[in-house]
Amino acid sequence: MTAPAVVDLEEIAAMIFDTDGVITDTARVHATAWKQVFDTFLGEYAKRSSERFPPFDAGEDYLRHVDGKSRLEGVNDVLHSRNITADPDTAAGLAAAKDAFFRAEISAHGVTPFPSTP
């Protein structure tokens, strides 16, 4: 096991603990990840239930139902907006799938800092 790095706090002028949406523009990536997850789920759910569901709108649905909320709360809010009640395992699976897609997109393409970020 590798020993943890030692940080001399006397030498540090500043630390950044959160860049997601603070200094980097990740909202687009979050919205795209949610769209991928919900469109897939809603399509499969529609086949099983013989109902039609509107696709996830990466603008309006994202802002109304998931932005600023925990992943699990966002999942439940979107599904509720479509009159779908998911069991806790399904909701947790959708939340985990969104996180995996988001991380893969960031790994593959990086993120863009806001223009105001030096």
Description:
- With 118 residues, the protein is mostly helical.
- Helices cover 53% and strands 3% of the residues.
- The chain has four helices and two strands; from the N terminus they run βααααβ.
- The protein has a two-stranded antiparallel sheet.
- Helix 1 crosses helix 4 (88-109).
Jot down its keywords.
single chain, two-stranded antiparallel sheet, mainly alpha, about 120 residues, DNA polymerase, domain 1
What's this model, at a glance?
With 118 residues, the chain is mainly alpha-helical. It has four helices and two strands.
Distance between the termini: 36 Å
Major sheet summary line: 2 strands, antiparallel
Beta-sheet strand percentage?
under 5%
Order of helices and strands: EHHHHE
Globally, the shape reads elongated
Number of domains: 1
Strands of the widest sheet, in order across it, are 1-2
Structural class: mainly alpha
Total number of strands: 2
Low-confidence stretches: none
Mean pLDDT: 90
CATH topology-level fold name: DNA polymerase, domain 1
CATH architecture group name: Orthogonal Bundle
How many helices in DSSP terms? Answer: 4
The helix content, as a percent range, equals 40-55%
Radius of gyration: 18 Å
At the first level of CATH, the class is: Mainly Alpha
